[in-house]
Design goal:
The structure is a single chain. 57% of the residues lie in helices and 10% in strands. With 429 residues, the chain is α+β, with helices and mostly antiparallel strands. The longest helix has 33 residues. It starts with a helix and ends in a 33-residue tail after the last helix.
């Protein structure tokens, strides 16, 4: 081995420390002497073995004689259908030259490194409040620990100095990189430090991040429920407009008398403005990976939509405008309530919301209990948001302006002059 090392230096073999130190200084810092020696052996073999192979071929050619002689020092072998006579002593000398080659395999071209020493302190720390990200980064950590991080190196193609249009392998020029596992995706890092960016540069990890975080369960649920709520708000507006048209086209005074005798008060169409504004804000805020703010806005928009739809349904009941129309409006309220549940489930767990409903006997009371459970969970969520950023109160507290049926937690009274005595509102945070 010592002679081969001297020979490799004479043949200007690449230096392992220089190669690794230039490309991945952090990796070199934590490599053992044995690991560096393994790399150096491969680099030496790249220049020593071809030279030895050439010497072997030359020696074998010199061992060939044209005819046999006395003394038994010759042997014959067939080569390409022709008998070749060799001098046995010269042939064995050639074989001894071949034995001087450095024995390497593909296994020698990879070195398992100490993962813990290469990891950045925040490598797996989530950068958003999306729970899917925390779960995925924990999953990546487990996969990386299982497969390991490996230093790999191969000869590099260069342009042929004699014919620049052709690429050849240069035994003195190598490329070195880190990979996930022995044969896995490369990790792009300038120093060998494995930070978040380097880890997600692995194709499998980067693609997984897109599938499981950017398009993960939380983001898909937010997108689905936001679009669903926009449709329900539009449906509520349409039903509201149709009721207004009925009132407008009726004989003078008839609708007023019906309202008076039934104790009804026709809600203003502006009750749909606030929930629509909030749901559009949820869409606008759902960028950059964070989900808490769009979640809060979606929940508030859903509760405001539910309360608006219930207020309209109450008017229909009081004026006997028609059971079919009331059912349509209540479908909006039901769907909006479900959106609020899904929105809350992202952080609080839908089971807590539904537990209140299962504990109650009758369907009507059960729905009321579920609404109260949703409202209570929403109050806590929005309270946390406002505690972090008090400026959010200007938007989120306005849900109190949206009227709800009597007995609801969320909703409060409406703006002065629009309705009377409906709801109790949020008394405190």
């Amino acid at each position: 081995m010592g002679n081969n090392r001297k020979r490799a230096i004479a043949l200007k073999a690449a230096d392992a420390r220089e190669l690794i130190g230039k490309a991945l200084p952090m990796a070199l810092k934590y490599m053992t002497q044995a690991q560096v020696a393994q790399v150096q052996m491969v680099l030496d073999a790249a220049v020593v073995n071809p030279a030895i192979q050439q010497e072997y071929r030359d020696a074998m050619r010199r061992s060939i004689v044209s005819e046999g002689r006395d003394g038994g020092h010759y042997e014959g072998v067939y080569y390409n259908g022709q008998l070749v006579i060799r001098d046995v002593r010269l042939a064995r000398r050639a074989e001894r030259i071949a034995e001087q080659q450095i024995a390497i395999s593909d296994w020698d071209k990879r070195v398992k490194l100490d993962l813990d020493k290469l990891l950045d302190a925040d490598a797996f720390k989530p950068t958003t409040d999306n729970p899917d990200e925390a779960r995925y980064m924990a999953k990546v950590k487990t996969m990386l620990e299982k497969q390991g991080v490996w230093l790999r190196f191969e000869s590099k193609l260069i342009r042929d100095p004699q014919e620049p249009s052709r690429w050849i392998i240069d035994p003195r020029t190598f490329q070195v990189w880190l990979s996930v596992g022995m044969k896995g995706d490369p990790l792009t890092t300038e120093t060998g430090l494995l930070d978040r960016k380097a880890i997600l540069s692995a194709q499998a990890f980067g693609a997984g991040y897109y599938d499981e975080v950017y398009r993960g369960p939380v983001e898909r649920a937010l997108e689905k429920e936001t679009n669903r709520l926009l449709r329900e708000i539009e449906s509520g507006r349409e039903q509201h407009h149709m009721l207004w048209k009925i009132r407008h086209d009726a004989f003078p005074g008839v609708t007023f008398v019906a309202d008076l005798l039934g104790g009804a008060d026709f809600p203003d169409s502006s009750i749909w403005d606030y929930p629509q504004k909030m749901v559009l804000q949820a869409l606008k805020l759902n960028v950059g990976g964070n989900v808490s703010l769009p979640q809060a806005y979606l929940v508030v928009a859903a509760i405001a939509t539910r309360n608006s739809a219930k207020l309209l349904a109450n008017y229909i009941d009081d004026t006997s405008e028609g059971a079919e129309r009331a059912v349509k409006v209540l479908k909006v309220a039901k769907a909006a309530g479900e959106v609020a549940e899904v929105g809350l489930a992202i952080s609080t767990g839908v089971g807590l919301v539904r537990a209140g409903a299962r504990a109650v006997g009758t369907e009507v009371v059960a729905k009321t209990a579920k609404d109260k459970a949703v409202d209570a969970a929403a109050e806590k969520l929005i309270g946390r948001m406002i505690a972090k950023d008090p400026t959010l109160a200007a938007d989120l507290n306005k849900v109190r302006w949206v009227p709800g049926p009597k007995g609801t937690v969320l909703g409060g009274g409406v703006k002065p002059g629009q309705s009377t005595g409906l709801g109790t509102g949020w008394d405190k945070w």
